[in-house]
Amino acid sequence: MTLSRPHTESPYMEFAKLRSGARWNLATSAVRNYPLRALDFSWDQMEINGPSDYGYRPLLEAIAHRKGVTPEHVVHTAGTSMANHLAFAALIAPGDEVLLEEPAYELMLSTLLFLGAKVHRFQRRPEDDFALDAEEIRRSLTPKTRLIVLTNMHNPSSALASNDTLREIGEMASEIGARVLVDEVYLEALHRPPQPSAIHLGPQFVVTSSLTKAYGLGGLRCGWILAEPELAGQIWKMNDLFASNPVHIGELLSVIAIAEIDKMAARADTILDANRAALTEILGGHPALELTIPPVGTTAFPRLRSGDLQAFHDFLRASYETSIVPGHFFECPQHFRIGLGGDIAMTREALIRLAEALSIWKG
Questions:
Q1: pLDDT tens by residue, 35-51
Q2: Res. 1: pLDDT tops 70
Q3: DSSP assignment string, 3-31
Q4: Burial class (CB in 10 A: 0-12, 13-18, 19+), 103
Q5: Cα–Cα distance between 71 and 59 in angstroms, integer?
Q6: Region 220-235 average pLDDT
Q7: Are 298 and 340 spatial neighbours (Cβ–Cβ below 8 Å)?
Q8: Does an H or E element contain 172, and which?
Q9: Do the domains at 11-33+262-360 and 41-259 have one common CATH topology?
């Protein structure tokens, strides 16, 4: 007998893993990979096995110290996607009403549907540069809403929400007994100055993040959930159904990486500043695009003014060996996402090729 369930795969993840690569790659949303050789460690520090039953204490303490919470607030996970899945599973039951931003990262929507949520939407509008609007959320809430889900910075636009706006949303959630989950993986890229995590805005907030996007450390799979301690304890127990124990070498390397994170942040800022300047120089004001250049973040999300975006994507790959992420993965089929975290020389050349392709594209 074959088990049949809806929403058991992610179209975006399949694209990202199998079809997004190109010689000139604008499809990644992370800062370029950080090399292992750049970490200050010796192999004598490494062990295959260690005390990781419900979290490796030095790693929990390192994450907690960085985020200004206690280790009892922290659940270590295999990246942000697993953090989201695990947090959703702990916070909702099948049939619960969830309010999710639109446009949204496809994997978040697919995971909520897989878990049986009844998903309602609130809008982040292109004409407002995808800003988070507390009043839009207020209009979309119902007494049955159990969870509000959003990203900050917004994926895919890099729109940054203020803590004042998030605090107002948290107050709305408290009035109806709901929680607010904020995926902050892209907020990690804001270093000058950093914005405090939403976990400090009240116990109704649950935060997910990782070292993946802002520091080029995706291979460590060092993610986390921040939640009030009683809920965090429940999530740890639920994790037994999903992941059991983590890879201990990854935990050890993650502790080392967090100790050196200021160095990685400076590297990331250099890359993002250069690539954002190149985006402004090469595509700012391009007649084929509607483009707001975000002042922060690792991505931009322009709109193609005319023509079929998927056809343009195929033309760009075939004729210019350049990749972007089509916007249909974010429910905006006329937009596309550009990553700003790649190698500086490669990204500049990719942007030049994108501009040339836009200039001759007839739609």
A1: 999 999 999 999 999 99
A2: no
A3: ---S--S-HHHHHHHHT---SEE----SP
A4: buried
A5: 9
A6: 97
A7: yes
A8: helix 163-176
A9: no
Domain residue spans in the chain?
Answer: 11-33+262-360, 41-259
Instruction: DSSP for 271-313, please give it.
Output: HHHHHHHHHHHHHTT-TTEE----SSSSEE--EESSS-HHHHH
CA 89/CA 120 separation, integer angstroms: 17
pTM score > 0.85 for this model? yes
The structure tokens listed for 292 are 């707001």
- The architecture that CATH gives domain 11-33+262-360 is Alpha-Beta Complex (3.90)
Q: Does domain 41-259 have CATH number 3.40.50.720?
A: no
Coil, helix or strand at residue 353: helix
Q: Is the pLDDT of residue 6 over 70?
A: no
* CB distance 62 to 258 below 8 Å: yes
Q: Decide: 34 and 194 in contact? Cβ < 8 Å.
A: no
